[in-house]
Amino acid sequence: AMMAIFREGAETAVFYLGIAPAIALQDLLLGIGAGVAVLAVAAWLILVAGVKLPLRLFFQVAGILVFYLGFKFVGTGIHALQVAGAVPTTPIPWLPAIPFFGIYPTVESLLPQVIILGAGIGLYVYGHVRQAALTTEVQAA
User: Fold this and answer.
1) Domain that holds residue 20
2) Residues in contact with 70: Cβ distance below 8 Å, sequence separation at least 6, in sequence order
3) Which of 16, 105, 108, 109 could form a disulfide with 95 if both were Cys (CB 3.0 to 4.6 A apart)?
4) Are residues 94 and 27 in the same domain?
5) Are residues 101 and 129 in the same domain?
6) Model pTM?
7) pLDDT (tens digit, 9 = 90+) per residue, 27-54?
8) Residues of the chain with pLDDT > 70: what percent?
9) Are 59 and 44 contained in the same domain?
10) How many domains does the chain have?
């Protein structure tokens, strides 16, 4: 357990070291402060007030957030490589850029995102079909 916590701390430190040169010190400190404040409120609610987290909702929201970040990071990362000239660019003229989602109008950045989106939809459908089958099986027993 100690190694898992240490690893998370190390990942956080590496993340901050990587992002620090790209943003203003005030923004970095504001982000760290906001994160600590939210964490402190959540810890107080759980430990002192005895609030129980709705785990199903928590993990659904966390899963959607992780999916969104992965989708955006792939598009933004490939776009950055294209801007640097490391990856070729095949434009899609009719598609607008949507930076909030990491969508850029090139085949090279959009194709991996379509694959990720398809995998996400497939896993979602698989989970619902499997849950429906288990519910039917339990009701039949």
Assistant:
1) 1-52
2) 116
3) 105
4) no
5) yes
6) 0.71
7) 989 998 999 999 999 999 988 888 888 8
8) 99
9) no
10) 2
